[in-house]
């Protein structure tokens, strides 16, 4: 079974997908983490991010692995654990450039499809229901008011000891969503048959239960 969850940044996709994958014993695929790891490698090598050819060529020489653990996922870049590093601001601010390149996306999508060919998966990102798995069993488009998303992101950053003003976070989210929605290849977009969930006024538990009921109903052939 393939469950696709898409939506803008900080809408609660990852935390919800992690909780669901644990409850249902599905593999969790965090596709944003893959684009972040790719970006991190390019930054470390001091490659010019604006040069599509240079950044694309890196796809031949990069190994990204996602390891599901009981408390989330570990992201390995060329066998190094970069799970924390990829969440830092300098990666968040540049990942939209790297993820807009066709060859980069092709490489990541290949990896995502391979994982889903071997497991039941909950796959989360921006183009999962539209491009990666257009025949997913269930598609969710998760969103929330940008101010609420900024507040949630601020809390996540605090856990990493990163203190950032709410206004700055909101501006960054708006900028990233704008870039991700307006790019030519696989933009952030709700698939026609995706269930829209606005989580602005939902508790975390409500989000998880709502989607879980949809998955169970789907599994029983109820819709
Ligand atoms: O979900 P996230 O914030 O970790 O994603 C980081 C960036 O990666 C996001 O700004 C856009 C890009 N991304 C993408 O282009 N396609 C996906 N399927 C997932 C993420």
What does this structure look like?
- It is a single chain.
- With 223 residues, this protein is of the alpha/beta class.
- It has one domain: 3-Layer(aba) Sandwich (Rossmann fold), CATH 3.40.50.300.
- The protein is built from 10 helices and 8 strands.
- Helix 8 crosses helix 9 (166-182).
- The model has no long low-confidence stretch (mean pLDDT 95).
- The protein has helices spanning 13-24, 31-44, 52-57, 89-92, 95-98, 102-118, 128-132, 146-159, 166-182, 204-219, and strands at 2-6, 27-30, 64-69, 72-77, 80-81, 121-125, 138-143, 195-198.
- The strands form 2 sheets. The chain has a 5-stranded parallel beta sheet with strand order 2-6-1-7-8, with helices on both faces. Strands 3-4-5 form a 3-stranded antiparallel beta sheet.
- The chain binds 2'-deoxycytidine-5'-monophosphate (DC).
- 2'-deoxycytidine-5'-monophosphate (DC) is lined by residues 9, 31-32, 35-36, 95-96, 99, 125-128, 176, 180.
